Each structure stands twice: as C-alpha cells, then as structure tokens.
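Table 4 source record.
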Amino acid sequence: MVEGQQPIAKVAREHGLSETTVGNWVRKYREERAGDEPPLQLSERARLRELERENREMAMELAFLKKAAAYFAREQR
C-alpha cells in the first residue's frame, strides 16, 4: 500500500478502516520520507542479496590469499 503494491481501499476494507483515514496515514508517511530513496523492487532486493553474498565470499578469499602470501613470503627467506 505505501509502496503501491496494494490499493488503499483494499487495505482499509481488510482492516475495517476508513479509506480516508488510511489514505491520510499513507500520505503523511510518504511526506515524512519524501527525501528518502524509493524502496527496492523485489528483483533489486534479490540482486542486492546476491551481491552481498558475493562480497562476503570475495572478502573471505582475499583474507585467505593474504595469509597464503604472507606464509610463502616467510618460507622464501
């Protein structure tokens, strides 16, 4: 509803509220967050999760490679 996924009328009906009241709440919520970034779409959230997972894996690989490089640098002395 706030993100435009469900009509205000449907949400109001489901919760036994006035459309006007729910509409006012949504309008106020949107006004208070006018400068905020728009919410991510489902596909964007999925992509973000995938990139965060990839980032964690790469960080682990980097840490391992740094340790391996330090080990082999000591071995060659």
